[in-house]
Write a structure and sequence with these properties.
This protein is α+β, with helices and mostly antiparallel strands. It is built from two helices and seven strands, in the order ααβββββββ. The chain has a four-stranded antiparallel beta sheet with strand order 1-2-3-4, with no helix packed on it.
């Protein structure tokens, strides 16, 4: 009999602990659900649009620290449009520095995805841009090459 009473008491104790945990999770979830986002695209200097090619899906973005200043910069593919390379100004705004970046060769391609990694182990993030086809061609598949850019 003493064992049964102990088990009942133990189950009740576990039930109280479980309910307390659920209450805590509910409070945390409720407080996080109050966070709201504000749209600041224009004031941040972001002006980008992906132009679809032959019904393909949207493009890619690589978030990386281009100049190692501690702020995340952005490279965005643009499909049929011109890609963009946004340098984070450190004040919540970005500046497109695509022109003169060495990435201008992408203008000749329909760009799709992008990824960043230090492929040559020199400490800088390099970019790998995937393409669908060249913009001035009607080649059969494979239509275009993917592009690897080393950060110097």
């Amino acid at each position: 009999m003493a064992k049964r009473d102990f088990r009942k008491m133990r189950q009740g104790e576990l039930l109280r602990i479980g309910l307390f945990c659920l209450l805590g999770i509910g409070i945390v979830c409720t407080s996080y659900s109050q966070v709201k986002f504000t749209e600041i695209t224009d004031s941040a200097g972001i002006d980008h649009q992906f132009q679809v090619y032959e019904g393909m899906f949207g493009g890619g973005i690589c978030v990386f620290d281009l100049n190692e200043d501690g702020y995340d910069d952005l490279y965005m593919t643009s499909g049929m449009n011109e890609d963009v390379l946004y340098l984070n100004q450190g004040d919540g705004t970005f500046k497109n520095i695509y022109e003169g970046s060495g990435l201008e060769i992408t203008r000749g391609f329909v760009t799709q995805g992008v990824s960043g990694a230090d492929v040559n182990r020199d400490g800088g993030v390099d970019l790998f841009v995937t393409t669908i086809t060249t913009k001035d061609s009607t080649k059969k598949i494979p239509r275009a090459n993917n592009l690897l850019f080393l950060n110097n």
